[in-house]
Amino acid sequence: MAISSGRLFLSPPHMSGREEAYVKEAFAGNYVAPAGPMLEAFERQFADYTGIPHAAAVSSGTAAIHLALKSLDLAPGDEIWAATLTFIGSIGAAVHERLTPVFFEPDETSWTLDPDLLGAELKSAARRGRLPKAVIPTDLYGQACDLDAIVSHCREYDVPVICDCAEAMGTRYRNRHAGDGAFAAAFSFNGNKIITTSGGGMLASHDKRIVEHARYLSTQARRPAPHYEHAEVGFNYRMSNIAAAIGRGQLEVLDDRVARRRAIFERYREYLGRLPGISFMPEAAYGNSTRWLTVVRIDPAAFGRDREAVRLALESHDIESRPVWKPMHLQPAFAGARHVGGNLSERIFADGLCLPSGSAMSGADVERVASLVGLK
């Protein structure tokens, strides 16, 4: 395979060729407004694929989390507990609702929210009479959190779990799809995700009422009437019919995209796995990660260069790489927020690097990146 020309991006869109036919069909029917048959079909196909029976397509994964929160009885100052090693979308909607975030460390085996840490803190919070209104774990870089363990701890105290599955479309967890088993699950189809609608997301749940209420709120909470009638204030969060048409074409090749990302990870591991100071994000025994992004940790003492030196070396060759998520408890926006656990997330941030992982990468592209990483 030839090396790609131009800039090599971290995770660019990868069209299947099937999207155009669906978009043309939408145009032919003049369904370019938010609602339409493509939107309804995309929701059905998503539910069929994931096994989560009810789904509402919205404008982003963040919007999906926001709508899930709006299904709860919340008051300003209520606590929301979340993973610290995550993208800000997991917690931004909660802060906009004037909720108080508390951030939790990951465990070593998955880099996702530590269930044991959560269980101990829930027990302590129950004694204090200060339980959270929801827990938001994150499925990280294509790896599912240990959802059953998290839900088990939360169920004891009647705390709902809203799973941030933005990075986990196609991820398997205990022989089912990531997010299946949560109170609600939020997915993202942003341009850098394993499949994309250019932008967009999905809220999914086994509880039909949650999804129906979210769909209602996502269209400005308009009540059925010949005029515009509103008993409450909603949001302009509904996905467009055109974006859903793209999503249908993408969803049909999701399994191929997952297989390719995992193959790219294996090539990186083949090239870099024997180098001193290089280690990879672990795959938890309970699931099958999509390896949405291949993530390495670089020990500068053993490797001879630190993470930033490697990132800049790649950038000098027009290759995009990126540090792992900066932990939320270290973000200036959340200065003073309570943080539970040790410092694993800080250590991963200090030495972790996401390598180009787009499913359209050639084998030569992967070899080129790996060779540049391995240069001393």
Give the topology.
Layout: H1 19-28, H2 37-50, E1 54-58, H3 61-69, E2 79-83, H4 89-96, E3 100-104, H5 115-128, E4 134-136, H6 147-155, E5 162-164, E6 172-173, E7 176-177, E8 184-188, E9 201-205, H7 208-218, H8 241-251, H9 254-272, E10 278-280, E11 287-288, E12 294-298, H10 300-303, H11 307-315, E13 322-323, E14 338-340, H12 344-351, E15 352-355, H13 363-374
Parallel strand pairs: 2-3, 2-4, 3-14, 5-8
Antiparallel strand pairs: 1-9, 6-7, 6-11, 8-9, 10-12, 12-15, 13-15
Folded structure, characterized:
This protein has 13 helices and 15 strands. It has 376 residues and is of the alpha/beta class. The longest helix has 19 residues, at 254-272. It starts with 18 loop residues before the first helix and ends with a helix. The mean pLDDT is 96.
Q: Class by helix and strand content?
A: alpha/beta
Which fold name fills CATH's third level, the topology of the largest domain? Aspartate Aminotransferase, domain 2
Name the beta content range. Answer: 5-15%
User: Which consecutive residue ranges, at least 5 long each, have pLDDT under 50?
Assistant: none
SSE order in H/E notation?
HHEHEHEHEHEEEEEHHHEEEHHEEHEH
Give the CA-based shape: globular
Count of folded domains: 2
- Work out the helix count: 13
Question: Biggest sheet: strands, sense, closure?
Answer: 4 strands, mixed
Strand order of the largest sheet: 1-9-8-5
